[in-house]
Amino acid sequence: MKLDIIPDEFTKAIGVLEEIQANGFEAYFVGGSVRDALLNKPIHDVDIATSAYPEEIKQIFPRTIDVGIDHGTVLVLSNDEQYEITTFRTESTYQDFRRPDKVTFVRSLKEDLKRRDFTINALAMDVSGEIIDLFDGMADLQQQIIRAVGNPKERFHEDALRMMRGLRFASQLSFTIESETLGAIQEFHPLLEKISVERISVEFSKLLLGKNRKKALLPFIKTECYQYCPGLRNYGEELLRFSDLPNKQLETESQAWALLLKLLNLSEKEVRDFLKAWKLSNHLIHEVQQLLYGLNRRLSGNWCSQDLFQLGLETALSVEKLLFYFDKKSTLEEVKEQYLRLPIHDRKQLLVSGNDLLNYFDKKPGKWLGDLLETLESAVINSQVANTKKDLLSFAKDTINKE
Ligand code: ATP
Ligand code: MG
Fold this sequence. Notes:
This protein has 403 residues and is an alpha+beta fold. The chain folds into four domains: 1-143, Beta Polymerase, domain 2 (2-Layer Sandwich); 149-249, Hydrophobic Seed Protein (Orthogonal Bundle), CATH 1.10.110; 251-334, Methane Monooxygenase Hydroxylase, Chain G, domain 1, CATH 1.20.58.560; 347-402, Serum Albumin, Chain A, Domain 1 (Orthogonal Bundle). Helices cover 51% and strands 10% of the residues. Strand 8 and strand 9 form a beta hairpin. Helix 7 (152-158) crosses helix 9 (179-188) and helix 17 (313-323) runs antiparallel to helix 18 (332-341). The N and C termini lie far apart (82 Å).
């Protein structure tokens, strides 16, 4: 079978493949990009596999970078593009369920495709657009099936992360996991314990963001993979409820985690521990906490000025989008207007500064100053005082006198 229209991403790289061939080696496009092209999906990275050894690739191309030479990957810089070119390889004797003990370079494409995780990821394409399909990946693509290459039990034993990858492809592509493959996940899910949280986290977050989350969450729960994911062990019921939410695709990672956490119904402290356990970045953790706070507020009423000010417009709008999952209408335009109407959007816009207050009250700096600034900020946001120096100083004086 031949791909009729070869996407630009491949066309640009054809020169590189031809150059490798001119030196007497084989070269193909492989992996996710071939799968996505056949599915008419946008392509991100074009991976190239070759029979040439890394040293041979380095002799062919003047500009290369060793990015993973032990695994056979060399980055080739060509025109303005860069391509990862990986030598055909086999992986053998996985003793720890996650890393091959030994990577062996081989000259055979078939051997290379055989070590890949799923049939739909084991397709190759040559420079003419001809698809090389040695494991019936095309049939599985057509039937929308995720099937391990070869014996699924062996494949998950070699690398347990593949189970999570299978689930995330089910979500991203809206495919069904083939029954033998699913059975092997069911049987070997405890091997996920051997996999680093970071790697599981990448796959789980892609699963959450996929276009058919539910299609992956149900097997994720049923096979009990969730029991080997941080913080989820005792939350089967809650996860089922999460999977039962409207299946509309989520837009951002923070939305995905916030929605999940809302359904898990954890305390503030537990939320933080949960996100930490998943090894998410501090930045993301903060975003999720903000979203969750906003969501809880918004589910019990309308925005107050103070919350809008604290969270900022972007977070507030993101919260609005989550309301859909709780059968509540989002009011994006109204929220935007309400936000723009706030008298100030940043503490720096207050027309008195800490220094002004120090001079005015002729007092030493201390906790009182921060408290006072906060009071003034709130008062301005809630339109209790105008944001002018005169009004603020008089309001400050009244506040201090009341204490
Ligand atoms: P994405 O679109 O998310 O990048 P992908 O299929 O390209 O999906 P990658 O993680 O980029 O996924 O891996 C590229 C290819 O390498 C896969 O298509 C697959 O053939 C192979 N691969 C990746 N991880 C594994 C694994 N754990 N076991 C076996 N093969 C793998
Ligand atoms: Mg990829």
